[in-house]
Amino acid sequence: MEWEVWNGNKLRQWVFFDRDNKGRIIRMSQISLVFGLLVDVFFEWEGQNITRYESTVYNFPDISTYVYEFKYDQFRNPYHSVFQNIGFNFIDNLPLTENNWLEMLVYEKGDYEGTKINYLNKFGYGGKYPFVKESTQIKDKIRKGIYAEYKY
Under a CB-based contact definition with an 8 Å cutoff, are residues 105 and 116 in contact? Predict the structure, then answer.
């Protein structure tokens, strides 16, 4: 599966997806017609949830790889049925997961302590779907509240 990214009437980029035998996206590559490979992302799964992924950004001459690790709740992701045919959640910019992530740890590969940021989500549920999400960012033991509200 691939997407084309156009600017006006000119094709600028492609986004390619590789899938495993269960249909889960295991690699996403963004390729520019001008610059070549821009981003390469490899996903690791446990069941229908991403547990970890590595994203390498090719911003020549600098190349950086960030690692993302996740923990989930037991409730169904409301976007699961919305984006089911594509298998990609455009809201979270991730392949489609079955559950809602509660914790995401982000760090630059090779510099865990220096670049570590922890994101926490707390949901309010109405039935089986969340209707309110409260997000918090923690870096160097400093909390920053980021609040978002969703109604399904």
Answer: yes
